[in-house]
Amino acid sequence: MKKRKVYAMMILSTLAAGCAQKPAETPEPKKEVVPAIELSNMDTCINPADDFFRYANNNWLKNNPIPEEYSTYGAFTEIDEHNEILIQDIINEVSKDTSATQGSVAQKIRDFYNAGMDTVAINERGYSELLPYFEMVDALNDKADLAELLGQMHSNGVGGFFYAGGSTDPKNADMVIMHLYQGGLSLTDRDDYLVDETQEMRDKYVEHVAKMFELTGTDSIEAAKKAQNILAMETQLAKNSLSRVERRDPDRTYNKRSRQELQASTPNFNWDKYFDAAGAPAFDSLNVGMPDFIAAVDKVILNTDLNTIKDYLKWKIITSSASMLSSDLDEENFRFYGNYLYGQEAQQPRWRRILSATSGCLGEAVGQLYVEKHFPAEAKERMLNLVGNLRTALGERIKNLDWMSDETKAKALHKLDCFNVKIGYPDKWKDYSKYEVTPESYFENVHRAIRFENEIDMAKIGKPVDKDEWFMTPQTVNAYYSPEMNEIVFPAAILQPPFFNMDADDAVNYGGIGVVIGHEMTHGFDDQGCKYDEKGNLNNWWTEEDATKFNERTAQLVKLFNEFQVRGYQINGELTLGENIADLGGLNIAWDAYQMTDEAKANQSIDGFTPAQRFFISYGTIWRNNSRDKYIERQVKTDVHSPAEARVNRTLGSMPHFYEAFEILPENKMYIAPEERAAIW
Q1: Are residues 632 and 593 in the same domain?
Q2: Separation of alpha carbons 501 and 379, rounded Å
Q3: Residues 553 and 407 in one domain
Q4: Where are the beta strands (DSSP E) in 277-416?
């Protein structure tokens, strides 16, 4: 299912649940006051003009080696762990409540979590819960019936060939329409199938697929053949897939088609049967994100042996469910996707993974309990003030741009005025009354959650967009901008140190959460967000001359990041452009907003650092992060976010006030000549 487009501050991925045991006791969350800047985390022996990332964080990096269950560990992870303790406390309390009414939120949270923790029952069942799905595939005797089967599988959360689901119409942002999007691959990127450098990965992948088939009842020789055939078929899908850079262009991925036009382009696939089986309502038109890919799927199906297609569908069933099954499947799944691809040395404890699954499948139910206990009203009030100041600062920056015409400035300012701001939690909570949870089967609870969400998603098609809906839960450590909603959203969980500290000076908060706010605001004007108007419609509101000047300036930022390496891995400045624009814009906006405060005007040092220095130190600390080499290798190839070191050192290199605060000179490593710096918003 294609999810609504949002641009998040940071992507946090949690590998699915496995079979380690819950610790006997969960530690109590720390309640002491957190220092505004933890000086012991810094390394003042390092020249900030040469490596600011390590100047601000080096002792933290030394004292916080990556735990074996992580591939990357940083400020986001620390907050996430703290949140897990809070959520675990909530769920433990709920899980012990034997009097919870059947059908109540408490009963659902309790039974979902307890079923996921019952590894004895899960291991006893082995892979038996997959057998009904295998039988559905085995019953496929004709490719003409594939569409109906695929619709049933997609509605149960089993992928294959493509994604489909309801989302905003980019050119009519008040309405939800059906979207089709490329998919069907099991490796992390199209190029994993196509370039010589990833041959070892493909070999390991084939071994993994074969092993998973063996664990679900296929003999080793036949399993090896199935794995090779699946790789060959997925490679055909990869050859017809757009690259990650190409997919960033919203104009390229908007292709409105009638159902008749879609059917004419894919004569071998019955879309009426697919949409009916997937639970879609009646509709006349849809967005086909990648028309060439969808047409290619039709040909791949036509030219692929039916038995290979059936093996591919079974593989999708196995790999999408492995973390819900017995320990042998779960551990083999982790061995490839966690250990081999990302360097993770061990799975996270079972209690943590089931906690994450509970918080995902019952997200707003858990979120409601979370904010009742852990989100004070004064935090929301202070955030609203910060957002107001940042909005004012961005407005002033737009008015003073020397490269933009008054005509385009007026439209940019109008879009900014129309920004919707959501802080903390939704005004109305999701109703889970139709979602059934039982204590008997973790596997079924997860699949029922997927079907529940699919029904909600499909029911939106053809209806007005719900402007009150959130696309992150309150307990999520992140933030996002939605171009189609023209809104910025800050869940409750990110509003804590090092991003937001009620006890800190303004310099620290503006350098932390202030930059986060500015980052999300800037997404409304990055190379993708700028293509949407104040109503969220994909609509060019730029003059041709201004668009040319904007593209020239973003090209300079691409160049700067293309020239930057982290541990020898080259950053892709085109892939990361939107996030890099948002980082630089966020810094500039937060800096200007901070200058409006009485504290900045007083210019009093604290702990030997000027307010300007504290602002930039705070920015550096929010990106403190240790990552394994394999994680960095995957990140630069697949993630729209640059590695943490680049987000600090490369971004600050285009910040004039940073040069003044730390006396950066031409001979210093952080120095970028003025004419080579990026200056956009």
Answers
A1: yes
A2: 9
A3: yes
A4: 285-288
